[in-house]
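Hi everyone, sorry if this is the wrong subforum. Our group has a chain we'd like a structural model of before ordering constructs, and none of us has done structure prediction before. Sequence below.
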Amino acid sequence: MDSYKDNLSYIEKAQAGDSEATDTLIRVNYPLAVSLAGKFAGRGCELEDLIQLALIGMLKAIKSFDISRGCAFSTYAVPLIVGEIRKFLRDDGLIKVSRENKKNAAILLRLREEFSSKHSREPHIDELCALSGLDREAVICALDCSRPVASISEPLTDEGGFTVENVLGDGGCSIDAAVDRIALADALTKLPEDWKKIVFLRYFKDMSQQQTADALGLSQVKVSREEKKIIACLRERII
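Answer:
Right subforum, don't worry. Here is the predicted structure as tokens:
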């Protein structure tokens, strides 16, 4: 069936209580659920269980999808499916959020708030490491455990207009490519505000490092160094 128009038609019927339409949507989008579940294989949970979790996330996506948004269903569904699997692995499954991670998260959130109040910007990961005495892995893990799910329409910078939807595009690509783009979009939401601005100017406005430096009041060398850190950080955060 037409992956876009027919999806919308079936979603309307499913949201009106048509169980057959829901079953059709699940069947048609089943490869997406399997692909996403496979990303989490080998983490202490059987693949079949991961697929079931993915299908629960897909059901939630079907119920909450807003047709008026004009985006592809798969684009909307992927974060909910991934979120459902992550929630199970972290909170309800074999991989728990440890007391140590919860304690570290509380400390880091306090340190981040104090740093932001003093410097009027979000601290970098390395700065949080220095302030807390924790290594990068511990800081990233603790912050990730405490991070709420972000809306795909939520602006990634204070200026607005730069959202996860901009990163995802119209969904006209393969499942694996779509998953990778979702992972990148999710990683972008975790970046400090000043890093998001560099990404926006460099990769969405196609500015050179010098143009970006001029726009942000930085040196070209500073932008170059920060860009390398950003790329390294994004690689660490990709699913």
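For your construct planning: DSSP finds 13 helices and no strands in the chain. The CA atoms of residues 36 and 82 lie 7 Å apart.
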